Amino acid sequence: MTSSELWTRTTAERYDAEENEMTSPAVLGPTVEFLAALAGDGRALEFAIGTGRVGVPLRERGVAVVGIELSEPMVDVLRRKVDEATLPVAIGDMATTRVDGEFSLVYLVYNTISNLLTQEEQVECFRNAARHLAPGGRFVIELGVPPLRWLPPGQVAVPFDVSDDHLGFDTFELAEQILTSHHFTRDGDSYRPGRSRHRYAWPAELDLMARIAGLELEQRVADWDGSPFTDDSTKHVSVWRKPANSA
Ligand SMILES: C[S@@+](CC[C@H](N)C(=O)[O-])C[C@H]1O[C@@H](n2cnc3c(N)ncnc32)[C@H](O)[C@@H]1O
Fold it and tell me: Ligand 1 centroid to 105 CA: how many Å?
């Protein structure tokens, strides 16, 4: 039983329809190139593959991709783009579901490790990635840096998007390390509300989870274009490696 919220049919149908920068060639191009370089001649496993935003173009780029995904409605949308033989997907929890074979790359993008709402499950997710990796293989995570610098004492929310079509802000349960993202998306003349809960974690906590799972930090950059990770970075792309001599 996972703590993740289940993505519904309505959310799945909207996921690809609502264009944002994450579906733009400017983001997807460097994402696919970064992941393809790490996969090399091996196979790639995407945890929480969703509608295939990244998995489908990576497959088209020539990498053999397999997915794990909790939400059947999200996979139904993916199936309109690619069949099971070309891109197999197992329905299940990325922290526990096992698929056949070894992979040179396991990846989990777009902040999705934070959908697991407990530290224990996030550790299990790292362990599950390590289980699927061949010796020398890599686990890649794309995740926002917790935006706590913007939360002075007494303030309850941090806005992350204020535009004509979308208002977004985060609220925090600091003792529990949980943030809730609130969205108000323009729908005709009104705004449609939405929200999602996340367990945020600093990069250093992820490094510890990786060590528990037997993985070593190889690289941390600020984005898919490889720009340096700094004090002011708002997200990171981190790469951990399973030692070549591991069982
Ligand atoms: C932000 S979307 C990312 C989808 C895709 N990776 C992408 O980059 O577009 C988050 C996805 O994670 C899935 N998800 C959430 N918790 C999960 C879990 N515990 N195991 C597997 N999938 C999960 C959701 O169903 C949803 O499809």
Answer: 17
CATH top class, domain 9-145+202-241: alpha beta
Long-range contacts of 28-36 (CB under 8 A, 24+ apart): 28/53, 28/54, 28/57, 30/223, 30/224, 30/225, 31/109, 31/224, 32/57, 32/58, 32/61, 33/224, 34/140, 34/224, 34/226, 34/237, 35/63, 35/105, 35/107, 35/140, 36/61, 36/62, 36/63
Tens digits of residue pLDDT in 54-88: 999 999 999 999 999 999 999 999 999 999 999 99
**Domain boundaries in the chain?**
9-145+202-241, 148-196
Mean pLDDT over 132-157 rounds to 96
Which residues line ligand 1 at a C-beta cut-off of 6 Å? 2, 4, 7, 48-50, 53-54, 68-71, 74, 93-95, 109-110, 112, 115-116
Kindly tell me if the per-residue pLDDT of 247 is higher than 80: no
Give the pLDDT confidence score for residue 220 in this predicted structure.
Answer: 98
Q: Determine how many CB atoms are found less than 10 A away from the CB of residue 205.
A: 15
CA of 129 to the centre of ligand 1 (A): 15
pLDDT in tens, 162-185: 999 999 999 999 999 999 999 999
